[in-house]
Write a structure and sequence with these properties.
The chain has 160 residues and is α/β, with parallel strands linked by helices. The protein has helices at residues 11-21, 70-93, 114-126; strands at residues 27-28, 39-41, 46-51, 97-102, 131-134. It has a single domain, classed as Endonuclease, Chain A (3-Layer(aba) Sandwich), CATH 3.40.960. It is globular, with a radius of gyration of 17 Å. The two termini are 24 Å apart. The relative contact order is 0.17. The protein binds zinc ion. Residues 53, 58, 60, 62, 102-104, 135-136 line the site of zinc ion.
Length: 160
Amino acid sequence: MAAIRGKDTKPELLIRSGLHRLGYRFRVTRKDLTGKPDIVLSRLDAAIFVHGCFWHGHNCHLFRLPGTRTDFWASKISANQKRDETVRSALLSDGWRIATVWECALKGKARLDLQELLTHLTTWLEDDEGLFEIRGRDLPGAASSSMQAPKATEPNSSHR
Ligand code: ZN
């Protein structure tokens, strides 16, 4: 992984270039759409959000509530989650289909194979299912932290 450091491997760019390679054409961050989806495929009525697991409070190994200013972060993240919900409802009722790709599906130890992820995504794109979500694999034995139970454990604790 160190070899590709410095290259721009932001999660949404991985998705964009993958879709582009597969022949999909799309708009990026359409400001006129509710919630500014990261990728918009108008022909397929599809809006794709690439969500950072921290900012959107994902229940996964990448999310941990900070030990300092915990209340501040908890209320900020819970406000983000509420807004995500509002955005989803608004887009759905305008006839959009919505996919959420979580950061943990693209980076870190739970990430999926990029081709596999793109296959899931394009299968959904060609389908007519409304809501879709892609997240990282479940990690065996990993206790994921959540908003309700913040833990201050070290990521590589030695009980294994
Ligand atoms: Zn996640």
